[in-house]
Amino acid sequence: MPTGSGSRTMTVIGAAKTRPRPTAACSLLLKLQHRLTGDINLLIQYTGTNGRVDGAGQALPVEEFVQHMIQAAGCEPQVNTHHTLHGPVHTHATTQLLCKASEPLKHARLMDWLYLTQMINGSGSNQCGKYKSFYQIGNFGAEEVNAIWKYLYENSDSALSQALLQIDSYGGAINCPVGHGHETAVPQRRSLLKSQLQVYWASPEQEATCLKWCREFYFDYFKRQGGKPYADNGDYEGCYINYPDVDMKYRDHQGGAVDTRWLELYYGRDLAKRLVDTKLAIDPQNVFRSELSIPLSIP
Q1: Dist CA 96 CA 100 (whole Å)
Q2: Helix (H, G, I), strand (E, B) or coil at 59
Q3: pLDDT band at residue 256, thresholds of 50, 70 and 90?
Q4: Which range is least confidently modeled, 21-30, 53-62, 141-150?
Q5: For 105-119, 127-141, 162-176, 181-195, which range has the lowest pLDDT when averaged over its residues?
Q6: Looking at CB atoms within 10 Å, which of 71, 83, 181, 189 has the fewest?
Q7: 51 DSSP assignment
Q8: Poorest-confidence range of 106-110, 243-247, 263-267?
Q9: Residue 270, Cα to own-chain centre: how many angstroms?
Q10: d(CA 164, CA 175)
Q11: CB 210 within 8 A of CB 159
Q12: What is the predicted pLDDT for the residue at 2?
């Protein structure tokens, strides 16, 4: 996994859970970071069968996965021992890379589930930030790869010291069909990846640069379909509403004309109509509202 600095890093975490679970589970966060932010990082969160990782053979799947990734990357990554797991992972001159990724358990941390959940939450320090999201079903095409290279490597503005595209693994149980009795307002159940384009800044002088970078990156990534992850071509499945992005509501970031398909990006065509009907029945005066709340009519 080459980066602008030539470094490769990987973080491995083991979490012990007390509540029994029938199968093993592995979640991945691939952090493709701007070259001024830090190295490419792969965060692996894993729990074995019955929710534990300390039994005989329990960690074998994650060891096999790491070996598979090393072969795919064609290089020997190193394990990153930093404790900052949300947002950007910066490279420090004093960093000690203590072991090879081919020994993933040597410095993995065994944690209680609640402690781990609090540790990797995304609150971070007090600063400003911009998020954009998209669900991805298909593979990466040339247009997407070129956008990633252009905005993570070619742009060298010093304001982009906390900028990255984080790609989360999806699939598994979350893609199980949603039927009667298990209905949800999150209809994206076919994706293999959920990605978050992130940029953070502490100085007001950096805001314009960071917002411009984020918006142009996103538009170029989806240029062949109008700059947004509509589901039309079968490669994407819209956006995640818990990363609210007001840009999705409008045809441009100036907040002018409303995009008549913005609800579809978050909820799909069929569910959007049902949610509007529910809103009319429960809150016909639109008392409870925000910029991206369910409106009283389809745009």
Answers
A1: 12
A2: coil
A3: confident
A4: 21-30
A5: 105-119
A6: 181
A7: G
A8: 106-110
A9: 25
A10: 26
A11: yes
A12: 34
Q: What angle do CA 77, 83, 87 make, to 5 degrees?
A: 85
Q: Give percent of the chain with pLDDT exceeding 90.
A: 47
Whether 104 and 79 have beta carbons less than 8 Å apart is answered as yes
Q: Is the pLDDT of residue 36 over 80?
A: yes
Return the ∠ at Cα 256 (arms to 251 and 261), rounded to 5°.
35
For residue 29 the two structure tokens come to 């966060």
Task: Provide the H-helix boundaries in 39-129.
Answer: 60-73, 113-119
The mean of the pLDDT values for the chain is: 83
DSSP for 152-209, please give it.
III---TT-TTEEEEEEE--GGGGSPP-TT---S----S-SEEEEEEEEESSGGGHHH
Looking at this protein, which amino acid is placed at residue 39? D
Give the pLDDT score at 61.
Answer: 84
Contact indicator for 177, 205 with CB cutoff of 8 Å: no
Burial of 62 (0-12, 13-18, 19+ CB in 10 A): buried
In order of start, what are the domains of the chain with their CATH numbers?
1-124 (no CATH), 126-175+185-299 (3.40.462.20)
Q: How far is CA 246 from CA 164, 187, 242, 253, in A?
A: 20, 20, 12, 8
Instruction: Judge contact between 61 and 86, C-beta under 8 A.
Output: no
To which H or E segment does residue 88 belong? none
Q: How far apart are CA 187 and CA 272, in angstroms?
A: 10
Whether this prediction's pTM lies above 0.70 is answered by: yes
Determine contact, residues 79/121, Cβ cutoff 8 Å: no
Q: Could you give the angle at the alpha carbon of 284 between the alpha carbons of 283 and 285, nearest 5°?
A: 90
Burial zone of 16 (CB within 10 Å; 0-12 exposed, 13-18 middle, 19+ buried):
middle
